[in-house]
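Write out this protein's structure.
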Amino acid sequence: MTIVPFDDRDGYIWFNGEMVNWRDAKSHVLSHGLHYASLVFEGERAYDGKIFESRKHTERLRMSAQLLDFDLPYSDDEIVEAKQALLTKSGLKDAYIRPFAWRGSEMMAVSAQNTTIHVAIACWEWPSMFDLDAKMKGITLDISKWSRPSPESAPVHSKAAGLYMICTLSKHSAERKGFQDALMLDYRGYVAEATGANIFFLMEDGKIHTPIADCFLNGITRKAVIEMVKDMGYEVVERHIMPDELAQAKECFLTGTAAEVTPVSQIGDHHMNPGSHCRNIVEHYAKLVRQ
């Protein structure tokens, strides 16, 4: 597999209000965002040239920044328009969009009140991860040794770079064991989420159960899927779920910008068979994002 590095590609990046050539979009190595993780970001998808839930992602980007004690120097309207303009200029229809904001290099210490806030947006081609038949085989999850932190120890509702360090560690460990991703528990021992996606279970009672998003991101895709499956006639139960309840799950799936809706076939020693419910939800989501 040939890896195309992200610093050496053709195209454009929206950088502090201007369209710049991809290779020229650079930040100094002594930026606060690099050294102290004062960076927030979003992951978004465009389908047929239209960005799904663009404004909601923009609003969350601003909220994430405010939780890290800085604000974006552009309005929501400006960011929404910039994302669409970049997508158009890039000539892409089905794409991944990554807006992000970080503190600059004026101060190199824990304090960062006088740093410039930079904002950039990149986008690149990213078709759906799997076709339906491949997706229905389901992915496998290890159970991570790392836990999602408590709200008293981290800004858990911010989509902030620093919170993904344990996700990277969890995913690397899972892949070394032959799994494709990892399920993370929270600081109390409850089921939380995968490394970059929320999780849902179809339980024996016929209802869809999902963890309460009280110490991890309440994903935009998660919320869209909850409303969608309710319209499909499912009852959704948001509650704390213990790991030993995984044995009662008939089907399981992940949701997220990258994952979309991805069925799960194994979590640790627990095996599930992605079936008609997962297939139906996957198909409905594919229609939802293209409305």
